[in-house]
Description:
The protein is mostly helical. It has helices at residues 3-23, 25-39, 55-70, 72-77, 85-100, 105-129, 133-160, 164-169, 192-212, 223-236, 240-259, 263-281, and strands at residues 45-47, 50-53, 178-179, 182-183, 217-218, 221-222, 283-287, 292-299, 302-309. It contains 12 helices and 9 strands. The strands form 4 sheets. The chain has a 3-stranded antiparallel sheet with strand order 7-8-9. The chain is globular, with a radius of gyration of 22 Å. It starts with a helix and ends with a strand. Mean pLDDT is 82; it is low at 283-310.
Amino acid sequence: MSVLAHIVMAVWIPTVLVLFAVLGPRRAVIVSFLGAWLFLPMITYPLSGLPDYSKMSATCVGIFIATVIFDSKRVLRFKPSICDVPMLIFCLCPFISSQVNGLGSWDGVSEVIGHVITWGLPYLIGRLFFNDAKSLRELAVGFLIGGLLYVPLCLFEVRMSPQLHSMVYGFYRRIVQMRYGGWRPSVFMDGGLQVGMWMTGASLCGIWLWKTGALKRLWGVSVAWLLIPLLITTVLCRATGALALLLIGLAVMWLSSEMKSRWALAALLMIAPVYLCLRSAAILEWRTPHNNCRLGWRRSSGLVAISIQQ
C-alpha cells in the first residue's frame, strides 16, 4: 500500500470542509460524495469502539460537520416526517438483532452507530439538500458527470485489466475478473459489480435529463452525443444484473412518460420492501451437503424440505 492512500484518507475530511467554503453547501455535498465514491481508495481503518474509518464514513462525517459549521440553519429547519420511519427502523434493527442473538448491548449499539454513519447520515444529507426539483436536477447532473469521468478509466481497464487502483494506491484487494471474454473494470470501487451499477445509474440519469430537456448541452457538447460512449461503456462493464436493471429503468421511464402515470414507478419502488417482507416471513434454502441436495422453505411452524439423493 502506497503512502498516497494514507495521505488522501487523512486529508479527506479537511478537504470536504474546504469544498463547503469554496463551492457552497449543496454543490460541495455532490462533489464530496462523488469524489469519494469514484476516486478514493478502498481502504478501511478499524477503530476500537467506533465504526471503521472508510472513504464513505469519512465523507458522511465530514459533510455533517461542514453542514453544522457552514449551513446550520438548514439542520435546524429540518422536520422529520412519517417517511423517515423506515430508515429509523433500519438503523435500529441491528440492536434488536444483537439482543435476540445474545450478543449483548455493546455489540448492538456499535452496529447501530455503524448503520447510522453508513446509511442514516447519507439519508439525512439527502433529505437536507435534495428535496425539490431543482436540487434533484443538480444531483442528476452530478451523477451524469461522474459517469462520464469514469468512461476513459473503465475503457482502460477493459483493455488492460483492472489495475488502476493498484497503480495509484499500491494495492488491490479484489480478484481480477473476466466476464464474457473480456475484463470487468473495477477502477477505484469495490469490484466490477459496483462499477456496473454506478454506470447504469449514471446512464439512466443522463437519458432522463436528455429526454425531458432538463439538460441539453454539457461542456459545450450535446448530451445525446455524450450518452453514446456512456452507454457503450456501461455494456462493456459486463455486469449482467446492472444491465438488467438498466433495461427495467428504461422500461419504467417509457411507461411513465407514455401513459402519464406513476404506477410503473410505484411498482418498481415496491420491489425492495416486498422482497424484504417475503424474506422475513420465509427463507428459501438451498444446501448441498456432500452427496445430496436440500431445498427448504423455513417458516415459523418449522422446516419443510425436499431432499434429493444423488
